[in-house]
Amino acid sequence: MRSFFVLLATDMEKFQITILGCGSATPSPKHFTSSQVVDIRGKLFMVDCGEGTQIQLRRSRVAFARINHIFISHLHGDHCFGLLGMISTFGLLGRTAPLFIHAPQQLWSILEQEIEFYYHDLEFKVEFQGFDPAKTTVVYDDRSLTVTAFPLRHRVPCAGFLFREKPTADHLDREAADFYGVPQWDYTRIKEGGDFTAKDGTVIPHSSLTKPAEPGRSYAYCCDTAYNPSMIQLIKGVDLMYHDCTYADEDAERAKKHFHSTSVEAARTAKEAEAKRLILGHFSARYNDESILLDEATAIFPETVLAKENLTVSI
């Protein structure tokens, strides 16, 4: 089981998720409310920001200053009540770099007034980038990564987030390159798909000079949501999924009423999506022993673990 948490190939760059809070809305001494940090090649992205997030950042030894993008799934307090405090702390720490907040558009009408009232003298800019949680939308894009927001099934408009690395260039086969006399200055062109013409005019195809790159890694954050088959195709084959697991199967009617998922539904989703691994989270405070949730899920999808505060999982 240890390999689930810490296995990370030495030739691959970092892609890891640190859980800061995995409880549901009702306060509990056992869990903090929803928040986590996704670290991809040294870039830190926060997903949701419930109360207590800053404390958990300290405990997890995550550097505040390296968080430049915060994604908010929906406007329930256990997912966003910690946001204003985070902005305040950034100001106290002397932040000057912009902070990008990606959230349902409705949040800005609230947050703008709070910032103006409490923190009108911030030395950094809060860049709000609103989206419609009812639509599938690319909300972040750079050279190596896309983040896509997609609709979940909850009592209010709510989005999941899919982090997906972009494909990289093929790896150069150095032995083959040396054999055919490829000059070093031509390596990049060949890795990006080019062929090589030898001195005698023989064309050496790209496929004979390279090895396929590893496929891009992916992570899906699916919380809060009822069972949601409409998202399956989008997240098909995802390497790691974090899924709502508010209730045990015996409380399926309660889950349906509140638009949350049971352990069985979370595992069913992972299986149907052909995910490689599953993290269960957003636990109801009604369960003193969450092993029942894990047992029910692993019976359907064995590669499952329970979230817990300060847990880090690498892809």
Please identify which CATH superfamily of the largest domain we are dealing with. Answer: Ribonuclease Z/Hydroxyacylglutathione hydrolase-like
Q: What coarse outline follows from CA principal-axis ratios?
A: globular
In the CATH hierarchy, what is the class of the largest domain?
Alpha Beta
- End-to-end distance: 14 Å
Q: Assembly state here? A: single chain
Side by side, the strands of the main sheet go 6-5-4-3-2-1-18
Strand fraction: 25-35%
- Indicate the CATH topology of the largest domain: Metallo-beta-lactamase, Chain A
**Largest sheet features:** 7 strands, mixed
Low-pLDDT stretches are: 1-11
Query: How many domain units?
Result: 2
Determine Rg (CA atoms, Å): 22 Å
Mean of residue pLDDT values? 92
Count of distinct strands: 18
